[in-house]
Amino acid sequence: MKRVVLVGTGHRGTQAYLMPMTSELKDCVELCGVYDINKKRAHAAVTLANQPDTPVFDDFDTMLDTVKPDVVVVTTRDCMHCEYIVRALDKGYDVISEKPLTTDEKMLAKILEAEKRTGHRVRVTFNLRFMPLYIRVKEILQSGIIGDVLSIHYEWLLDTSHGADYFRRWHAERKNSGSLLIHKSTHHFDLMNWWLDDEPEAVNAFGTQRFYGPHREHRSVRCTGCPYANECEFYFDMAADPFYKTMYAETEDDGDHYIRDQCVFGDRIDIEDSVSVSVKYKKGCVASYSLTAHSPTEGMKIVFNGTKGRMELSRLESGYHEDDPIKDIKIYNRMNELITYKFKEGSMTTQTMTGMSHLSKDNLGGHGGSDPVMRAMIFRAPAGTPDPLHQLADTRAGAYSIAIGIASNISMREHRQVQISEFLNEDDFAK
Questions:
Q1: For residue 337, how many C-alpha atoms fall within 13 Å in the half-sphere facing its CB?
Q2: What is the SS3 assignment for the chain?
Q3: At residue 347, does pLDDT exceed 80?
Q4: Per-residue pLDDT reduced to its tens digit, 365-378
Q5: Which of 17-21, 103-107, 379-383 has the least mean pLDDT?
Q6: Helix-helix angle 60-67:81-90, to 10 degrees
Q7: What is the pLDDT of residue 322?
Q8: Higher pLDDT residue, 370 or 18?
């Protein structure tokens, strides 16, 4: 039984960690304490989880000193990860951090130094490594069917439901999220690093903000009470959803005073909504990546060009493709042959699911079933459990996933190519 404390009870912290710890993981996890700078939200979270007696603390350090947990789970705003990770390491505890590890190179250096100094470790949760479709990509690449990967073309699309939501939340301010290249793209950069079994060397990036942000005359501060609510296609009625009403609307007067329904055309927005990134990897692969946060359809398209062939991966699932989602892999070899894999959600099994008999394939949960499988491997699997695809990510993986985003931000700010070695080197990691 692992004794766990949680810091951060927002949407992700509550639904992906707090609630599962008190339900699907209750036979192997004991949630011993919760802390959030908004105490009303923390109390609302444990109540929603039907665990109102779970201790809610006024102070993070007091929680650690009182509970003395086995591990600390950090699911705060991205910009606060460093503070809680370092404080937990300094008090002698290992940490599980929601992605991204942190938001800039200075805080990354602090985390890596604390790991070296304390001897304790941080695990970063990348749930896309546990999504069956992406696992299959990893397996195919490892098989060598397309040979060594020479180049990647990677397009990620957020539709105007998912994408817009980042711009009404805290993520729209660079000081909180580091931009979508840190908060969102850390998933995608980690997948590239993991698929290639390689690390980035140099980055060049361009970005614009032309869709969201202060580009519309009819705008307000927030959706609640907005005079343009009846005409705005991005109006969000927070009070209409019981979860958002309880967790956010009714907790605005406490702690961080967070407003969850801010205008997607607000003056505060200072991050890009369209980006283009070029990456050179240490082993020689070159990659082009784009993120669009205002697409009519949601999904991604990825192409791998190898010495023996080409693999194309598609996952399109909203807008035009909502009723007939596309999830397939196509492999073209140099003998003029085509191999096509087509997948249905919930129908795939992979080696990562071996032994996860307590999970129902018909009800695997969030992110295509990846969340519960990831939680099972982190919290349930005994020490020494085989990890043949290296899905459990350490600080190194967390560092190199955000390194591309950090370098991209520097590149856009200073109009130049950025070497990852300018802020991240081999000597920075604990041995």
A1: 7
A2: CEEEEEECCCHHHHHHHHHHHCCCCCCCEEEEEEECCCHHHHHHHHHHCCCCCCCEECCHHHHHHHHCCCEEEECCCHHHHHHHHHHHHHCCCEEEEECCCCCCHHHHHHHHHHHHHHCCCEEEECHHHHCHHHHHHHHHHHHCCCCCEEEEEEEEEEECCHHHHHHHCHHHCHHHHCCHHHHCHHHHHHHHHHHHCCCEEEEEEEEECCCCCCCCCCCCCECCCCCCCCCCCCCCCHHHCHHHHHHCHHHCCCCCCCCCCECCCCCCCCCCCEEEEEEEECCCCEEEEEEEEEECCCEEEEEEEECCEEEEEEEECCHHHCCCCEEEEEEEECCCCEEEEECCCCCCCCHHHCCCCCCCCCCCCCCCCHHHHHHHHHHHCCCCCCCCCCCCEEHHHHHHHHHHHHHHHHHHHHCCCEEHHHCCCHHHCCC
A3: no
A4: 566 668 998 999 99
A5: 379-383
A6: 30
A7: 82
A8: 18
pLDDT digits (tens, 9 = 90+) for 32-55: 999 999 999 999 999 999 999 999
Per-residue pLDDT reduced to its tens digit, 86-137: 999 999 999 999 999 999 999 999 999 999 999 999 999 999 999 888 999 9
d(CA 205, CA 279): 9
What does the pLDDT read at residue 410?
98
Q: What is the pLDDT of residue 20?
A: 95
Evaluate whether 183 touches 272 at the Cβ level (below 8 Å).
no
Alpha carbons within 13 A on the beta-carbon side of 250: 15
Nearest Cα to Cα of residue 314 among 292, 291, 335, 340:
340
